[in-house]
Amino acid sequence: MVYMSGDNDLEEYIVKDIENELAATGSTAKVQVIALADRGPDYNKSRDDWQTTKLFHVNKGMLANSQSAIADWGERNMGDKQTLIDFVTWSKTNYPAKHYALYFWGHGWNWHPGYVMEDDTDNDSLDMDELRSALPSLGFIDVVGYDGCNMASIEVDFLWHGHATAVSSSQEFVDWSGLDYSKIISSLSSHPEMSADQLAILSTQSATNDKTWSALAVDDRLIPLINALSEWAGYMDKNRKTSLKLFDLSIKSTKGFADAPLDKDLYNLAEKISLNTSDKILQERSKALMDAFNGAVLNEHHANEYTNAHGITISIFDKSKNNNSDLDYYLSLDFPMQTKWGSFLDHYTRQ
C-alpha cells in the first residue's frame, strides 16, 4: 500500500513514481500493489492533468492516467486520518494478505505538526496525534516506510511500537528519488516469503541517493532501547544541577541534520554526553543506551559527511526562542509522556 500525498509541490513526481517504479513490476500473483494518489491543480499537467484522489491497482506497464484508476475518490484530504483509514481498510478488504506494508509518500518532518503528508488544497497534514488515533483502525502493519524527509526519529518509531514490526525511513532531507519501489517490488515479487525485517532492510538499501536511511525494529526489540533511554534521561533529570549544563554543552557538537538542526542523532548525543562527563553512572547509562542500538537498528547507511549518523534522531528545543506551544504539543505525544525524556526535556528547555 502506497499512500501518495502529491497535492503540493511534489505533484510532478506522482506520475513518474507510479509509472517508472510502482508499475515497473506491478502486481503479481503473490504481491498486490495498491496506491492512493492525490494531485493538485498547480504544479503538473501530465496524464490528462487529473487533480482528484485516485485509487490504483498497479499492474506492470500501467500508465498513471484516469483510465487506469479503479476508482476516483474525488478531492480527498490526505492530511485527514479518515482518508488513510479508508485506504488501508479498502486495501485489506479487497486484497487480503498474510502480510502488509504501508508506505507514506509525501512531505515529512517526524512529529512536527503541519508537515507530514501535507495537502495544499485542504490546508492540512497528518499530524502525529491524528495518526496515533488512527492506528487502532488500521490494524497491524508488518512494515511501514516513510518516503519523506526527516522521519527516522525515536518519536515516530515509538508511535508504531506494537502496531508494526519494522520501520524504514531517513534522518535527513530525502532526495526526489527517495525509496526505489521498482527494486522493492521486484525483489519482493521474486521472494514473497521474505520477513518484515528483510523487507524493511530492502527498502532502506533501495534509497541509494539519500544521505541517510535506516531500518528499525519497532516490535519488542525496541523495548530495551526505550528503557535505556528513559533511564538515561531519568538520571539526568534527577541530577539537573549538573546535567543541564552538560546537556547544553553536548548538544552543540552533536550531529544535526539539514533544515532540522534540532533533530539530533540519538546515539551521537549519548556518546557526546559520555565523553563530556566524569559521572561514572551517567557514563554507564550512556553506554547502555548506545549498546541498545544493536538490538533495534536492523540496517543503516549514511554519506561520508554523516559519519555521526546512526539511524535515529531525537528532538530538542531552542531555549532562546519562544517555542512553548511546540513544546507543549511535543510533550503531549506518546514518547515523551511514557518515558522520562519528557520531564527532562521540559526542565532543560524552560530552565
Strand content: 15-25%
If strands are numbered along the chain, what order do they take across the biggest sheet?
A: 4-3-2-1-5-6-7-8-10
The residue ranges in which pLDDT falls below 50 over 5 or more consecutive positions are none
Whole-number tally of structural domains? 2
Which secondary-structure class do the elements indicate?
A: alpha/beta
Evaluate the radius of gyration. 20 Å
Number of strands: 11
Summary keywords:
single chain; alpha/beta; 2 domains; two-stranded antiparallel sheet; 11 strands
List the helices and strands and how they pair.
Blueprint: E1 2-6, H1 12-25, E2 34-39, E3 53-57, E4 71-72, H2 81-94, E5 101-105, H3 128-138, E6 141-147, H4 154-159, E7 164-169, H5 181-190, H6 196-206, E8 212-217, H7 223-238, H8 240-251, E9 263-265, H9 266-276, H10 280-296, E10 297-302, E11 313-315, H11 324-331, H12 334-338, H13 341-350
Parallel strand pairs: 1-2, 1-5, 5-6, 6-7
Antiparallel strand pairs: 2-3, 3-4, 7-8, 8-10, 9-11
Helix pairs in contact: 1-5, 2-3, 5-6, 7-10, 7-13, 8-9, 9-10
